[in-house]
Design goal:
The protein is built from 3 helices and 2 strands, in the order αββαα. It is mainly alpha-helical and 113 residues long. It has 2 domains: 33 residues, no CATH class; 54 residues, no CATH class. It is flat and about 55 Å long. GO terms for molecular function: ligase activity.
């Protein structure tokens, strides 16, 4: 695998041919190290606010602490911080607990109303 790290993206490491899992991990680690050393790392940033169209990030490396527009939080309806949504989520957790669940086909469904 001969990747020019200066022009690489995570896509380049998605399905490399001819490498076992350990070689793939080593190549990916080489890429992450390159990003860190050159202050290009914007992977796993620390969010210090709730999710919404604007989020606050902690200062890390080249990222300055402040508010940034977020295009990745799946809050296109603006409900993540809505008080009624939060109350309903808390009530659901108190009744059913937390967990990833499973497919309704094998795990059933909850009578949520």
């Amino acid at each position: 695998m001969n990747i020019n790290l200066a022009n690489a993206s995570f896509k380049d490491f998605e399905n490399p041919r001819g490498l076992d899992i350990f070689q793939r991990a080593a190549e990916h680690e080489r890429y992450l190290s390159y990003l860190k050393e050159n202050e290009f790392m914007n992977y796993r940033l620390t969010v210090t606010s709730g999710y919404g169209p604007v989020i606050e990030l902690a200062e890390e490396g080249h990222i300055k602490k402040g508010e940034y527009v977020s295009f990745v939080c799946n809050d296109y309806l603006g409900f993540t911080q809505h008080p009624e949504i939060k109350r309903a989520a808390i009530a659901g957790i108190e009744k059913y607990g937390t967990g990833a669940g499973s497919s309704p086909l094998i795990g059933g469904v909850f009578p949520i109303s």
